Every structure is written in C-alpha cells, then in structure tokens.
Amino acid sequence: MLQRKCRGKSGPGMIRAQFELKPPPYDLKALEPHMSSDTMEYHWGRHHRTYVENLNKQIEGTELDGMALEDIIIATYNKGNLDTVFNNAAQAWNHDFFWESMKPGGGGKPSGELLRLINRDFGSLEGLIKEFKAAAATQYGSGWAWLVYKANRLNVGNAVNPLPKEEDKKLVVVKSPNAVNPLVWDYSPLLTIDIWEHAYYLDFQNRRPDYISTFMENLVSWEAASSRLEKAQARDAEREREEERKKEEEWKSRFKS
Ligand SMILES: [Fe+2]
C-alpha cells in the first residue's frame, strides 16, 4: 500500500505527511513481452503519479490529512459524493494493488486454500477465469474487475449496499466503474485488473479481451492472491471474535442489571 513520507512540521506539534508514489515490485521492463515498458512508464510513471500528486494537494490542511488511504477512500465514498478526492485516493490505492496483482512469469494455477475456495465457489479455476474475463470485458467504459473475498456484515458507516448473510464468506467476482473499489462495500480484494484504456491501449489498442486474457494467462500473481486471502480470513476471524466478545459483554451486563 502507499507509504507516507514525512513532510516536516506544519503548525504547533503537528507532523504532516504525504503519500508517496511507490514503484511496482519489479522492474518496469519485467512484464515484457506481455506488458511493455512503454505502458508501464506511462501508466505508473504518469497516470498513477498524477493520482498521488493530486491527492496530496487536495487533502492538505483538510480533516483527511493524516488519515490512512483506506480510511480516506471509505470516508469520502460514504459522503455520497464521489468527488475528486475519492477518485484520486481510490485510484492511488487501486494502482498499487494492481501492480502487486501481477508478477513476471505470472499465470499458472493457484494452490492451497485459494484453490479450494475457487473450486467451491466457481466450480473450477476455468469457471473463475471465465467469470473474471466476462466481468472485465463487459465493464462499460473505464473501471476495474476484481476477485474478492466477501465475509462481511457491512460495518462501514452509511454505505448502502445490502449484503445478505447467506452469501457471506465466499469468493466473488465484481466489477466497478471509474475509481470505485470493493473496499467501499467492505469486501477484501484479492486480485484486480485495470480496464481503463490507458492500461492497455499502447499494447493492445482497442482489443480489451486480448489484454484480459494476457493478464490471466501470463501476468496474474496467484501468490499475491493467496497471501491476501490469508490476511482477509484472519481479519474476518478477528472480527467474529470481537463480535462474540461484545455479545458476551452485553449478556453479562443484562444479567447483572
Ligand atoms: Fe490505470
């Protein structure tokens, strides 16, 4: 995730920080021939950089300054106003997540718990890939497609998406327009593909389906997805323990009174 770097003191006792553009976890040429260094230089070096720089300018001196990036995304989304701060914050986060969803020599097959859940929730890896490709191909205009772990009770303020309990704890594929990401629905993203034209136009022109296939077959990092799944399940288990603790405390206080 984006790192903050200290910018020095601003006002009595305040240490202000700004978000820093983090490089992808591999050389900009390392995804060739599947994603060219030209694409990486434009996409990371210009587009991603602009989101981060704009975000830093927009939050300076506001109540958002000093908050974690994820908290800025959720706070601005929940105001019901997808303004430029939300767009830049979410795009900054999404791109970090996208770079880390790929690796040189990617593709292949997932393993372990991730594969078990893929087989359970999509029937097979082929089932997941088919659904993921369809979501990415059919997102109208700019946006993102995601594989997410959904294990929530929707405790993100006034977000409006109803999340039925019977669908908790499963892998799902979702797509989102523009900058929106599944954090705002309290899902745990495992993988994403950027389907803005700037992600693929230099290499594939208007052939978005070819770009999506290349991503799934040659770039995707199942190791990253597995690691994210492990963290998501740990987070979910901790939430459940916390809910149980709260329930117990409530019962105890009722019994006492
Ligand atoms: Fe992008």
Bound molecules: fe (ii) ion
The ordered string of helix (H) and strand (E) elements is: EEHHHHHEEEHHH
Helical region count? 8
Radius of gyration of CA atoms, rounded to a whole number: 20 Å
Q: How big a fraction of the residues is strand?
A: 5-15%
Q: What is the helical fraction, as a range of percent? A: 40-55%
The global form is globular
- Runs in which pLDDT lies below 50 for 5 or more consecutive residues are 6-15, 155-161
Largest sheet: 3 strands, antiparallel
Physical arrangement of strands within the biggest beta sheet: 4-3-5
On the 0-100 scale, what is the average pLDDT?
Answer: 88
Termini separation (Å)? Answer: 46 Å
Query: Structural class per helix/strand content?
Result: alpha+beta
Number of DSSP strand runs: 5
Family: Belongs to the iron/manganese superoxide dismutase family.
Domain Manganese/iron superoxide dismutase C-terminal: 110-158, 165-227
Protein name: Superoxide dismutase
EC number: 1.15.1.1
Characterize the structure shown.
This protein is of the alpha+beta class and 257 residues long. 49% of the residues lie in helices and 14% in strands. The strands form 2 sheets. Strands 4-3-5 form a 3-stranded antiparallel beta sheet, with helices on both faces. A hairpin with a 5-residue loop joins β1 and β2 (15-20). α2 packs across α3 (84-99), α4 (112-122) packs across α5 (125-138) and α5 (125-138) runs antiparallel to α7 (208-219). The structure holds fe (ii) ion (FE2). Fe (ii) ion (FE2) binds at residues 43, 47, 95, 194, 196, 198-199. Belongs to the iron/manganese superoxide dismutase family. Mn(2+) binds at residues 43, 95, 194, 198. It comes from Rhododendron griersonianum. Residues 18-103 form the Manganese/iron superoxide dismutase N-terminal domain. InterPro entries: Mn/Fe_SOD (IPR001189), Mn/Fe_SOD_BS (IPR019833), Mn/Fe_SOD_C (IPR019832), Mn/Fe_SOD_N (IPR019831), Mn/Fe_SOD_N_sf (IPR036324), SOD_C_sf (IPR036314).
